[in-house]
Amino acid sequence: MGELVDFFVRSRNFILFVLLEVLCFYFIINTSNYWSATYFNTSNRYAAKVLAWSNAANEYTRLRQVNADLAMENQRLNTRLTRLLQSKPAAPAEYQADSAFADRFKYTVAKVVDNTTQFANNYITIDKGTDDGIRPGMGVISPTGIVGKVKVCNRHFSVVTSILHSEYLVSSRLTKAGDVGTAKWDGVDPHLIKLNDISLTKTVNKGDSAVTSEYNTTFPPGILVGRVRSVGVQPNKTFHDITLLLSTNFSNLSFVYVVENRLQQEQDQLEKQVETEK
């Protein structure tokens, strides 16, 4: 307390000067319409700027929650869209898928906690595990396209084999040509992937879309893999040399969706039974 009193005693002249300045400023504003209007216009302008900065800062801090909310909404929309497409596939008009088949895909939102793109064999870690119903073999997609397949899990985390893996193959179909091939990363550019086994008899143009085909149990058909970046001819082969620009940007993955095929185990068991009986 004594130090505070000493401070006021030492600074009494400066404090008196500030008080007189404030008092003069007050009288000027209250006795002159011009200066009063100028003061309020100026103060309102700066107050508006401060408020805008404050709102921008608050919105920035809420981006994480906004992204999480959008991911949940995309999960619901993906589920509804897949159910609709599977119940009314591009098939003869008399064909109607049963409800179990149409509703066989389930989506679970997960956040990416680790991700590599610089190796020949890349992996992604997500924050969902067996406690959330995740198990090895499930497909993983992003809001823009395919990502990979779950490799191993523990209770709270899962490691995903990225499509940027030298041994990972994805059955893919060109939407315009209708031909089915295999998408496989060549280990060079994390934005590009090769599409193999597309016959030269099929017309392929730059910009054509490649999506997951119907001949797999991991992903719903129609998930975007990429778009044709370049088309050439493989030497001494009857296939196109096709490079796709991947639809998923692996350098900024944030949220993904783990895809569960509820009928996959039943289908696998039946197909294994046929193989053993051959």
Automatic annotation (TrEMBL):
Ranges where the Rod shape-determining protein MreC beta-barrel core domain occurs: 112-260
Domain of life of the native organism: Bacteria
Entries under Pfam families matching the protein: MreC (PF04085)
Bilayer-crossing regions: 12-29
Keywords: Cell shape, Membrane, Transmembrane, Transmembrane helix
Classification via InterPro entries: Cell/Rod_1 (IPR042177), Cell/Rod_MreC_2 (IPR042175), MreC (IPR007221), MreC_beta-barrel_core (IPR055342)
PANTHER family noted in UniProt: CELL SHAPE-DETERMINING PROTEIN MREC
Family stated for the protein in its record: Belongs to the MreC family.
Name of the protein described by the UniProt record: Cell shape-determining protein MreC
Gene, per the UniProt record: mreC
